[in-house]
Structure formats: structure tokens, C-alpha cells
Request: fold
Amino acid sequence: MDEFKLVLCGCRGAISDRIDINALASEFGGTAVECLCGEDKGVLDGGPAVIGACPPFLARRLLAGSAGTDSVFLDLREGCAFMYREPGDKARELLARAVARARAKAARKPASSCVTSDEVVVVGDNPAGLHVAGLLAGRGKKVTLITEAEGGMPPEKAALLDTAGVSVLAGASLIRLEGGPGRFSLTVEKAGEKLDLPAGALVLAESQNSEYRQADHGFELGMGIYSMTGFSCLLNSESTVCVPRLRGRRVGFMVDVSTEHSKRYVTQALDLAKDVVTRFGGEAYVFCRDVKVAGKGLEAKYRQAREAGVLVIKKEGRAFSVSTEEDALVVSCHLPSLGGQWMEQPLHLPLDILVVDETLVPSKALAGAARVLGLSPVQPGNVRFSGVNSARVGIFVVGEARADLDDYEQALDAYQAADEIERFLSCVDTSDKVAVDAALCARCLTCVRLCPFGAIAIDSYSMSDKSAARVDGSKCKGCGVCASACPARAISVIAYTDEEFLAELASSGEGAL
Amino acid sequence: MSDRSPRIVAFCCEHSASKCLFEAVSKGARLDGGVMFYPVECSGRVDAIHILKAFEQGADGVLVFGCFEDACNFVSGNVRASKRVEYLKAQLQDAGLDPDRLSMVNVSPATPARFVRAIDEMAVKLNGISSRAGFDAV
Reply:
């Protein structure tokens, strides 16, 4: 067996106790080892191999870097847990399948390539971004942080980054991205000059802004109505004119209107309400749907605010309205009474100040950077993108750039991103995921329409030019949706071609199935 | 009624069903030996040709495991797969095969029980189908 190695892992007994891997290995002309992800890793030389071990999704990750990217993995551990036949027979069948597949693969000779890089560019300076820049620099990566902020960073932030060894490009904006994962090339504009930056991986760490949306509330700001951000600035200002005027006022906070269950605004409202009572001797009311469910630590904040004297009123079921007529602010709501009844008379609560919640919108810098990076400015709510992974390979999104996160979650993001990036950069697979047969491609646009990541483009439709659909390697994730939909069968997934599948199917024990 | 357990080809999305298999087995589930797992990157990768070839090679049933809707690692691969399976069921019926032999099941790594039940149900269904008079001749 010259074209590939065959290695069977005993998984320290998890496999070798049930299956005689030594006998299987000699039958198929391979080697059996005790622990492939541990001390026996040296058996693999980076070339193509058939590897019998734990499930492929685990083995591929554990053996990244030592197993060739075009290796065939088979699941000896979980795949052989069957009651109907001996595990050994099942293993033989699986092995025969994998060998048939590897032969079909070797006949095609796909190029395997693995590059390493230690350059990371962080775009933006949100807290998670600063954190991840510091973490990666500490792990020996060459980190550059780009921020659009004019006049650079606040001195304390800059000092921290300097100590960590992060180089900072302030007042610079991202204008172009080229290349693929592991070898991105960024063009950055700084004071009218264009700079080129190489990067193995990218981190998007821009911020979101709070914005008051009148359509959600139905009234304008002013006349004693403040946005959360505005009121927070006022309360924390040093102004000798405004601050004394806030003494002894009756303030209402309205949350869960623009954004339901937003930990940012609920936290802010509870903090500010507590301040109104304790620092300014006023009365504070928080109108909410649910204050405790939005995030970590809210339960305690809720208790502290109530103990300080803040009244939390749940607006639910019955009518809830705010009237701003005749220059008086009055909130009317029905309150529940005992026995599941509603109180006959609504509560009319005159207020001096009403503070309303806002909604998060991507900042200009975030929207701009996301456009250049080919990402959506608001990350989709797909559970698979939870965490720091974006829709593009090699580009990670942290902190506010992806969601409304509290400090704790931002720190988690930074650690997760640092780990993911370190692993990603240790071996970046730059080989193409799919191949397009230019002779077969009819340029029908089916793949262009279907690709979930917008990775496929057709450059020319002219009859003289025989160009085919072109797949952008930095966007392609190798799912194969295009390959199975192509009417001309011009696209094949290199990791698992139709020929490989058919070879495997034909070898599945007992002649056929 | 055939004397062997039904042969099922199960296409497993690597992001959900392969993890289900891992979870199920590590929790002690024992699956029917007649089922063959083919890990694929995405259920959207499973083409009509794969399913039909599996039947041609003698599979009694084919299961396509994909992620739940809105949870596909590749955004819409699972939706493509379920549409394809629906289409193929109609084709199978036209060809005289019971459309119940093919089925698409949505799972997530957190639903190993659903995964195992789908395989068991398919096996039961296939036993019922093959016991119908004259059907094995097709």
C-alpha cells in the first residue's frame, strides 16, 4: 500500500479491548498503535493516511497538523458499537470501506497543503478585541490592532497594549481584503496613505452604538424624556447646573420596549434607578417585562435595587400607556391584585423624568469593516455561529461586534477567540474545497444562487471566454450544497467526491450491501 | 419477512448526527448492526445519485440526518436536503418503491435519543414493508 498509510488506534483500550486491531492491521497491511493522539503521533508523517480511531469530527481536530489533510478517517470506536454482528466484523467492513475510499482518493491525487502563520490583525478596539490582542501577543503571535479612533487610543489602553507587545495603527480604516485564510492581505488607509498588512487570521472587534428609535416608543425625546445613554451621561456628569436639579425627582425607567430582555439596558436601568434613589434622594420606578432573565448577575442587581427603594413594575397583559399631554408626564398601567384579578382602577403615575431604552445599531466603523470583510454587520442568530466563529473561514468576531454581551461574556469571547485562532493558525488548510470542471460548467448560476456563503462567482458570460464558475477559497466552507445541486455535475467536493462515495458503497461487505 | 436485519444507509451530518452517534454510544445505546453510517460534511451534500445508488446497491432504507432548521452550519444545507428527500420520495413511489424507505430526520448533538429512535423506527418500518407480499421481488 504505497499511496497511503494505514494506522489503527487502540484508544488506550477503548477500541483495542473490543476489537483485535493487531490482527486487523496485519490483514490490511497497516500498523496498530496504542494512542494516536498521544505518544504515537509520530507514526503519521503528514501524508495521506487511512486512520481508524475515534469519530472523524474528533480525530480530525486531535490530529490536525500530523495527519495529511486528504486522510480518510473511520470511526472504529463508536461506529462498531453494534449488537447484530461482532465488533470485529463491523470494523473489517468499515476498514474495507475506508480503504476503497482512500484508493479512489489516491487515484485523483488531491493537493494537500497546510500553511502556518503567526500574524493576526484585530480590527476595532472593543474590550474583547483588546483582550484577545493581548492574549495572542502573550502567546507569541504578531498582533496588529487597527482602530478608526482619531487621535489614537486613550493613554491607559495604549499603555496596556504596548506592554503586551501589540502594535497599534490608530486613525486607520480597513479598505480592502484579499487572499484567503492563512494568507490574507489587508489594505489599510491611514491619513491618506495606503498600507499593506499581511494576516493569517482576522478578528473583527468593532463596537455597536445605542440609538433611540422613536418608532418603538411613539414619542420624541425632550420634555423630560431621556434616552438611557443621555440620562446616564447627565447623572454621571460633573455639571453644577444639571446635577442639583435632579435631586428629589420622580424618575421612571422603561425597558423591554426597543429590545426585549436586553441585559445592557436592564442592567443600566437598575443601576441608574438605584443611583436616583441613593445619591439623589428621588423616587425611581422601573417598568419592565422581566428583569431577571436577561443575563448573569441581574438577580442580584434586582434585589439590590429593590432594597435601595426602587419599585419594579411589570407591564403585562393590560393596557400600559404614557401620556405626554399638557407638559405632564403620566404613566398609566393596570396592576394585578390577589386572586389573578386586575385592579379595577389603573394606576396613574405622574413622573418628572422618563428614561426610555434604546436599541443597538452597528457603529459606522463596524458596518464599514463588516462590508470589507464580507460579513453581515449583525451576526445571524444561527446556533452554529455561536461563539466567535463567523461565516468566513479565518475571520473571527468578538464582543459587541457579534452580540449584546456583558463584561463576563466579553472576557469569555476573548479566551475562546484566542484558543480558536491559535489552533487555526497552527495549520491552515489552503487547499481548494471544491473543484469546478470548466469543460462541464454551463454557467447556469445555480451554484451562485445556492451557495450559503456567496463564495461562487461567474466572472464572464461571453461565449468566446470559456471561464467557469469560480469559487473563492476564503469563503468556501466545503459543505457541498453546490456540488449536489449542479445540473451539469461540474462541481465536485474534493474531500469526498462522488467516486469515493460510490467506491465505498460498492465495497460495503457482502458484495453489495 | 427476510431473515436478516434491514440494511439502512444513514447519511450523517458531521455537525449533528455524527455527534449524536458519539453521544448515543457513549451513553450505552446499542444500534442495529444493519445500519451503515456515511459521515458527510452537510446533509445538503447528499445528492439524489447517492441515495439512488444506495438503493441500487441493495439498501433497504436510506436515512438522511441533518441539523434542525435554522441550525445548519452551512445556513441552508439542511433545507436543501429535506427538499431533495421530498422530491425523491415521489420519484421512488413512481418507480414502485415504498416512499417510506427514505426519510430525512433533523437532529442536533443534544438529541441522541431522537437519532437512535429514528433508526429503530426505520428498521421497524422496513420489516413491515418487506413482509408485504411480493414486495421483495421489486
